[in-house]
Amino acid sequence: MSKHYKQLKKLSKRSLGLTAIEINKEIDTVKDNRDGLSELLYTQSENVIAAEVIADMVTNYHLKNIDKSVEVNIELSAKCESTEIIIKNKSYVSDFFSSSIYKELSGILSTISLYSEFLKYGESYADDSLTLHVETLLESGKLQLVLEGKELSEDSLKELNKIVLNYLPTYEQKFIEFLPTYMSYKDSFDTIKSLYIEDGKGTGIIDKTKSVLSDVQDFSERTKLDQLGIKTVLESGIRKYKLSFGELNISDKNIISKYGVSNLKKEKESLISLQKENESIDDTITSLVKEKNQISQSKINKDDSVDELNELLDGIDTSYIVKNSLISLSAASETHRATLSVYSGVRIGAIINQASKEGKFFVEVFELTDIEAKIILDKGYELLESTEPVVYNYNTVDGVRKTETLTTWTISWENANSFASEEELKE
Question: pTM for the whole thing?
């Protein structure tokens, strides 16, 4: 038997203060939880399957001007069994591919509406940047527009058209500057930048030139104040578009977070947690059964010891000593509760012994009379006896090492509290 105290933190705490009947109730509760866990596991596994479909939807179709809601819904119905989960995730599909803007920009949860907003701000930002570039050239005198009556002369039109064409790389850079890198915008931009052919009969750049011309053709009639006002409006618009892109990016992140890989990860983590809980239930039940058996065995040991001592003491009555407080020994239940208080950080003074003050659940002694043993058992403690040989006197005349049997008594209240009767606990 160990000669050292067990430390409280090393002991199992589940059954402290519980009776065998109470532990049985805990076992039944755990079993009931396991029965309910199977349904939770099924539901969560279905959630993971659906989340995988939705995450693939984001990967394949986010910020593309296409509606694949029918295809995604078909895949959901094919892979999931739960009608409830299918319906829930079909609503996600509908929100994802919605073409209507029904929320503030920061709250948009539709890839199609978000796509159109990005294009709108991208083109407006590039257009205003182009117009501001032309305005700056006009203001500096590097570009001059000559009118023939109310019409721009052909040479001036060609010059302006050349400037617009040369600005095309910058225009594209401005157009995509704040777009997400994974956004599919090429088709839209190709429509915007379609180049005029050698004979001058194109549409894209020509149209863009005409648009710029309509903004600047009254340049010669402007005052300095007019010019300052026009440039201020353009610069203000460019700043506004930059801020708007920030709001759109927030919405973009919201879409990915709600439907994408991060959501799939969250659903998988929930499933893993349930699986671990399910795997641990059998271990929990085994532990509880072991603790219940320990309490039951302690009760048997106590009863056997009491019977043996009653026979040895010829039925001597120790109740007088106990009831009249002729001993300073507290009841095991009291010591047990005090020890739990120690564990909680509260020290109980005089009503517990030194061992319980130190947070121990048993103490070993080397001398114990029969009547002392009887009193200890009557107070609700568990009493265990062990023996071991002790070698001593190495220097005897004949050189023989003598041995003696040492008896050790362990007074424990770890399990004893759990089988004390209500009457004993009240005393």
Answer: 0.56
